[in-house]
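F.,

This is the one I mentioned.
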């Protein structure tokens, strides 16, 4: 398993620690504005049934995903993981009274998690250009480990390279290359680029089963109950 070099990890930690000291508990500390942060989480979770599910949020920041999840269900277990100590400490304070919500300070590619999770998501994790690591190798290593750990599936978001302008420090992924990685893990995938013009999300589902009679994914038939087959 490839791991993020310490040089790149230090850059990430320093960047977010500096923002936290400047903005405190705010989406600005994560480089977001509130409206878009809420939309990103809405997109990442909208293809999953969250009822009675275990959820792993990689690069969880302040654990703000719980605001959306708790609107959909009260019956879930959440673990947030991040490499930035300031963010994890703040998240623990915010959710200290919630027994179903926990956080750990660790590197996802290094940590050994002793149980699988139903749903695994990552938002904003792949948005910065790495200096000592190939970004696509980093993404693929994340994707493979997360998919192996998930029972229902995974959802990650990305900055798209289908843009007119890129900052020097940001990494913009090629949607087709990310989709190719996804298809190596499952036939049952979704790429969404219909909510923001310069960002996209990829969903990779564990259940690839289908009936030969209709060649429609079983998961789709179960989840999309409005769909009728006659």
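My design for it:
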């Amino acid at each position: 398993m490839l791991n993020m070099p310490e040089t790149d990890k230090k850059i990430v930690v320093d960047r977010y620690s500096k923002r936290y000291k400047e903005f405190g508990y705010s989406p600005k500390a994560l480089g977001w504005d509130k409206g878009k942060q809420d939309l990103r989480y809405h997109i990442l979770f909208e293809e999953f049934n969250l009822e009675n599910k275990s959820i792993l949020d990689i690069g969880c920041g302040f654990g703000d995903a719980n605001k959306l999840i708790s609107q959909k269900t009260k019956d879930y277990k959440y673990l947030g993981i991040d490499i930035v100590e300031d963010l994890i400490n703040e998240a623990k304070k915010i959710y200290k009274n919630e027994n179903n919500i926990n956080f750990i300070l660790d590197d996802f590619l290094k940590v050994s998690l002793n149980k699988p999770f139903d749903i695994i998501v990552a938002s904003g994790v792949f948005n910065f250009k790495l200096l000592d690591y190939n970004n696509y190798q980093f993404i693929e290593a994340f994707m493979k480990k997360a998919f192996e750990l998930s029972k229902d599936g995974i959802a990650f978001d990305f900055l798209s390279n289908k843009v007119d302008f890129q900052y020097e420090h940001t990494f913009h992924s090629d949607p087709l290359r990310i989709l190719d990685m996804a298809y190596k893990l499952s036939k049952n995938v979704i790429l969404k680029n219909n909510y923001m013009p310069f960002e996209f999300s990829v969903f990779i589902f564990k259940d690839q089963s289908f009936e030969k009679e209709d060649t429609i994914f079983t998961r789709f038939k179960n989840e999309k109950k409005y769909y009728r087959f006659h």
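Strands lie at 53-58, 76-82, 101-105, 117-122, 150-159, 189-192, 199-205.

Talk soon.
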